[in-house]
Amino acid sequence: MPLEGVLNSGARAPEGTVDESQGGGGPRLSGTLLAGRDLHLSVERMTSWTTIWRRKADAARARHRDDRLGALMEAGGHTSALGGVCPDELRAAARRFGEILRVPPDGALLDIGCGAGAVLYTLDPRPQVVVGVDPSDASVALAAEAMPDGHFQTAEADQLPVPDGRFDGALSCGVVIYFPDLAYVERALAEMVRALRPAGRGLLVDLMDVAHRDRREARRRDAYPPGEHDRLFADLPHLYLDPAWVHATLASLGCRSWEVDAFGPDYSYATEAFHVAFETGA
Ligand SMILES: C[S@@+](CC[C@H](N)C(=O)[O-])C[C@H]1O[C@@H](n2cnc3c(N)ncnc32)[C@H](O)[C@@H]1O
Question: Count of CB atoms within 10 A of residue 60's CB?
Answer without folding.
Answer: 27
